[in-house]
Design a protein that fits this description.
The protein contains 13 helices and twelve strands. With 325 residues, it is an alpha/beta fold.
Length: 325
């Protein structure tokens, strides 16, 4: 990336002179100004967002608002953020990460709850915004998300087709459901709805993740539903502990039990048993959010809901239900 200092050297002037030409706050001779502007064009220099803001021009900053929570899966959040930042740069925008409630000129909101407390204020402002997530009421909002209801349905459909009739859902931490986070609630709704249609019994148990919490959760599931042969896991930190605990109990995957995960592909393929999974399209969500926000900033976009169709990839962790003994 060309720097201001390189422009100054190319034009044969000081860096401060280039800065003054860009800001227009000091008088610069026409000859010098032309020389600097020619160097800017030849080198393809683009001032960063901070310089544009100091110049009193449009800042070209998009805020990415991610509330800090101890129970969020940081790798997915960061994958979305990186995709958003990379896409924003192609449109000449920089991304500012905000972890509070501040609001600059344009915003992308993440970790959306069904009754998100940020939405009333968002609807009152004229700042363009896009949500990565789906609240209960999407009226007047632009939202981008994975179709989580279809995701839950897809997981139980796969297990039902393999003959599984008792399925346990190992969910996110209890706090995620307590605050009615959209993705977790919608996944569960879709899963339960399709389970009723396919005659599958579903038992949902939240889990804080980690070995100890997973051990307690699994023991509870098998005590309440000893005939469980299928697991759907929507909790990345519970995946490997679950597989380890099943091995310790002598339950082979997929011969005795099948496991389907909702997780990033990297988690699925690097697990001790390659997991049948529905991937979280983090990069697509980040890219789509920025594309829609830029369209709004340019006066081209309207409010809409974009749901990404889930895809299930079959790997080594799912197979036919064992024959009843």
């Amino acid at each position: 990336m060309v720097t201001l200092a390189e422009v100054a050297q190319h034009a044969g002037v000081s860096a401060s002179t280039v800065s003054h030409v860009l800001s227009g706050k000091r008088s610069i001779s026409a000859t010098t100004r032309q020389r600097v502007e020619q160097s800017i064009r030849e080198l393809g220099y683009h001032p960063n967002a901070g310089a544009r803001a100091l110049a009193g021009k449009r800042s070209n900053i998009i805020a990415l608002m991610i509330p800090l929570r101890t129970d969020m899966y940081v790798p997915v959040m960061m994958e979305i953020a990186i995709a958003a930042a990379a896409t924003a740069r192609t449109h000449g925008y920089d991304v500012l990460l905000l972890t509070g409630e501040e609001g600059p000129d344009a915003m992308i909101l993440m970790d959306v709850e069904l009754e998100d407390q940020r939405l009333p204020l968002l609807r009152q402002t004229d700042r363009p915004s896009v949500l990565i997530g789906l609240p209960a009421d999407t009226d007047g909002l632009t939202c981008v998300d994975l179709d989580w209801s279809a995701t839950g349905a897809l997981c139980v459909e796969h297990l039902a087709a393999l003959g599984h009739r008792d399925v346990a859902v190992i969910g996110e931490a209890p706090a995620v459901y307590e605050r009615h986070t959209g993705f977790a609630e919608r996944t569960l709704d879709g899963l339960r709805s399709r389970a009723r249609e396919t005659g599958v019994r579903v038992l949902h148990r939240p889990c804080d993740g980690g070995y100890d919490a997973m051990a307690v959760t699994l023991a509870r599931i098998l005590d309440e539903r000893p005939a469980t042969t299928g697991f759907v896991v929507q909790n990345e930190s519970a995946v490997e502990p679950l597989l380890a605990l099943l091995r310790q109990q002598g339950r082979a995957v997929p011969e005795d039990v099948s496991v389907v995960a909702v997780c990033p592909d990297q988690v699925a393929v690097q697990a001790s048993v390659r997991l049948t999974s529905v991937a979280i399209p983090a990069q697509e969500m980040g890219r789509y959010a920025v594309e829609h926000l830029v369209a709004k900033l340019d006066g081209r976009g309207g409010d809409e809901v974009v749901l990404i169709v889930p895809e299930l990839t079959v790997r080594a962790s799912s197979g036919p239900a064992p024959a009843a003994s």
